[in-house]
Amino acid sequence: MDFEFMQETFLRLLSGVPLTLNLAFTSVAFGAVLAMLIALMRMSGVRVLEAFAKGYVFVFRGSPLLVQIFLIYYGLGQFRPTLQEWGLWSFFREPYWCAILALTLNTGAYASEIFRGGLQAVPAQQVEAARACGMSGFLLFRRITFPIALRQALPAYGSELILMVKATSLASIITMMEITGIAAKLISQTFRAVEVFIVAGAIYLILNFIITRLIMALEWWLSPHLRHPPVPKASVEAVHV
Amino acid sequence: MKIFKAIGLGILASALAISGAAAQTKTVKIATEGAYAPWNFTGAGGKLEGFEIDLANDLCARMKVTCEIVSQDWDGIIPALNAKKYDAIMAGMNITDKRLEVIAFSRPYASGLHGFATMKDSPLAKLAGTGERVNFDKDPAAAEKIIGEWKALLKGKTVGTQTATVNLAFLEKYFKDTATIREYKTTEQHDLDMAAGRVDAIFAAHSSLKATIDQPEFKNMMIAGAGVSGGVLGRGVAVGLRKDDAELKTAFDTAIQAAIADGTIQKLTQKWFKVDMSPQG
């Protein structure tokens, strides 16, 4: 192990962190909205919407992300005249937006199932209690169902966030130079795969460690009822007197 | 105790059988990329085909060894050789100083030109020197002149090339501050992006570009500008070997020498590239 080289590699790979985080958080932000829509469609009771949601989840959860990225980037690239006609080419021309689209569609499918689990696990008593207080419709959703569902979905959604950070590594196949893309380039220049991948792996670990801490903090903040009640401090001063 | 004795004997017997088999025929595992037509590519039936597959079989017959050809992604092809996943690389790989730091090469078995390709209606179709050849080792003045002319046209353009290649090294040396360089895992991918118009030009080996242009989907693509060789582009295509594997290097050197001498390489390059690409000098 050449530690000086690893330090140099670490600094070079750090330059990929902004793009990795950008891809992960932009797609998670779009994906969360999409997932909520899909989850609500799935639970709407309207047959057409339900069938669409089911089909969507089936396709995007059931096929590899790598294949989806390839199809969106190289596949749609072959329909340039049509896309140009529709005014969509400036979007699909950029590898960045193709990566965002693929990642968004993918996380949308996974997260919609997580959200559905969270929503369905909201205790009926709570909803009934809210109704008894005169809440209904969006107000009930906003005040009671959604916060409880969010709290229940959070542990699983935290895993999804971590998966998304790791999934961005696939964007390197469509020329995006995020951490893995830069790592591959460094390996091709130095031929030292072990050192470079150890450092790249460590960077992902650090990123995901920070994300898990943030999720845990959010979970703690959202679950006051699960915390131990504060124990009154035994007065120590008395001993010294 | 009988059982243990029996197991012990069994292990001993199988160990002997394995070492006996290894002594009988030497197997050489050769890695290729399988995505670099016509050098090496995966054919319609999923089988590896191309110039290097034919050549490998010929060389192995000369060396009197059994060959197994495997495909391996280009960007990990050298580390995996040093990790002993296979014994040799035949994947259109040029001899360069950088690669010589970590692996050894046989004598070259082919040499060729590199250059730009673009669409026929692109402004880059006017890149200087189309049809000419410039050797960066033998004619530095001409090289400098053509780089200057190319720089003027390439300003602000996007150029695609395969990662970890001499082509990328060439672009980074001369056009790093002039054009945006986009790196692809395989040449097939930058061909697709050229046709889609995501890049303004691509830079690759002429042999590979010609094979692409021959396909009907890429008929609007053309080679633009002079064919270049030498300098960072390397000193010919050779078999990549581990540094400590002197025996195999000698065997390959002898076999390649023989294949050049009896015209096998000329014949095979004519078959796959339509031109003689046997190494000069």
Question: What does the secondary structure layout of this molecule look like, with pairings?
Answer:
The complex is a heterodimer of chains A (241) and B (281).
Chain A: H1 3-14, H2 17-42, H3 47-62, H4 65-77, H5 80-85, H6 89-92, H7 95-120, H8 124-132, H9 137-167, H10 179-190, H11 193-222, H12 237-240
Chain B: H1 2-24, E1 27-32, E2 35-36, E3 40-42, E4 48-49, H2 51-63, E5 66-71, H3 77-82, E6 88-89, H4 97-100, E7 104-105, E8 114-119, E9 133-135, H5 140-154, E10 158-162, H6 166-175, E11 180-184, H7 187-196, E12 201-205, H8 206-213, E13 221-229, E14 240-241, H9 246-261, H10 264-273
Parallel strand pairs in B: 1-5, 1-6, 9-13, 10-11, 10-12
Antiparallel strand pairs in B: 2-3, 3-4, 6-14, 7-14, 8-12, 8-13
Describe the structure.
The complex is a heterodimer of chains A (241) and B (281). Chain A is mostly helical. Chain A has one domain: Orthogonal Bundle (MetI-like fold), CATH 1.10.3720.10. Chain A has twelve helices and no strands. The longest helix of chain A has 31 residues, at 137-167. The mean pLDDT of chain A is 92. With 281 residues, chain B is α/β, with parallel strands linked by helices. Chain B has two domains: 21-111 and 235-273, D-Maltodextrin-Binding Protein, domain 2, CATH 3.40.190; 114-233, Periplasmic binding protein-like II (D-Maltodextrin-Binding Protein, domain 2), CATH 3.40.190.10. Chain B is 41% helix and 21% strand. A six-stranded mixed sheet of chain B has the order 9-13-8-12-10-11, sandwiched between helices. In chain B, helix 2 (51-63) crosses helix 9 (246-261). The termini of chain B are far apart. The model of chain B is unreliable at 18-23 (pLDDT under 50). The chains are: A mainly alpha (241), B alpha/beta (281). Chain A binds chain B through residues 74, 77-78, 80, 93, 95, 173, 175, 177, 181, 184-185, 187-189, 191-194, and chain B through 75-76, 78-79, 82-83, 98-99, 102-103, 160, 163-164, 182-185, 189, 192-193, 195-198.
